[in-house]
Every structure is written in structure tokens, then in C-alpha cells.
Request: fold
Amino acid sequence: MGPPSWLRTQLSGPHGLLARPMAWLLNTGNAAEYAHVLNQMEVDLSHVLELGFGGGVGLHQLLSRGATVTGVEPSAEMRVRAFRKFAEPLADERLHIRAGRAEALPDGPFDQALSLNTVYFWEDVDAGMSELRRVVRQTVWLGVASTDHLRQMRFHESGFRVEPPEFYAERLQEAGFEVRVQASTGPSSLVIGRTRA
Reply:
């Protein structure tokens, strides 16, 4: 039996009284995957777009490695949390927080973009991939859980997308990236797109 529908809905955009515990859950659940991905990224002195930063563990790891970061997040509660938690890098303009979704990203350019476990919630995958191609100069990193894991979580019962990593790789390629898929942590794969010369 998978998690209740309210939990799956909260994962797509933490809100209300559950926003704070959901931020903790997202940070705990994604920390290892962020570390795995960031060990492959050259982030020092680069400008990274993080799409769907949730509880902020990715923002913290990117900033600690010397990146300038623009975080885009649809959840108002998560944005408020980030403004409170990251006051110093915000003041130093090493971090910028924006409301938004994959289908309408802030103008870049960004050297790289990172988004872990958010693609299931995008309303329009093709539009999101096109937006990434518009604003990213070098590399896109997408963390995608296996379909078996997502079905165990019963994501499909909440209307969320359940597709294999190759589905997103194909659409990233169609948007104009050179793409490869590799294993990540746990049940996840990493879809990596590099801009074509």
C-alpha cells in the first residue's frame, strides 16, 4: 500500500500546516541524490538554475560549492522558507528566489539547470524542455525515479506522470540537447542533457 493521496499532493507543492514537515521530508529524502549529482557537476563560479527546490537542501549544497543560484519554486510556503533560511546569500546576490514553474522559467542565461524528482508534476513536459533549452547554456541535470517506484508510491492515482527516464531523455533531446541516462542513487536515474555546439 502506497502513501495516502494527501501526501502525494503535498510532494508536488508543500502547503498549509504540513509545509514545514514536508520541507524536512524532502530535504531528508533528496540529500543523498543531490550530493551524488553535485559530485559530477562543475558548479564553482557557475550560475545554476534549480527548478523545484522544495525544502532547500539543493540550494544549500550548491551555494556551499561556490555556485550562484537562481531557485524557482511554485510553492509559496517553500519560497518563504528559503527567504528566511538563506538571508545572507540572498543579500549577497549569490542566491535569487523566483516564483515559477518549468513551463515559464526566468530569463537566463544559466550555465546549468538542476531539477530532482519534479518532472512528474510538470503540466507540460515539452514546454518545460523548451524553456530549459531557451535559458541554459551548458548542461541540464534531471533526477527521475523508476516507474516501479512511482507506481509503488501510487503517483498515477493522484494524476501525476509515471514515465521511465527514457521518456524525459527523448523529450530533452527533441528540445535540442545531446542526452544520456545513467544510474543515480536508490531507484533513480539521472537524465543529462548538454547543449549542442
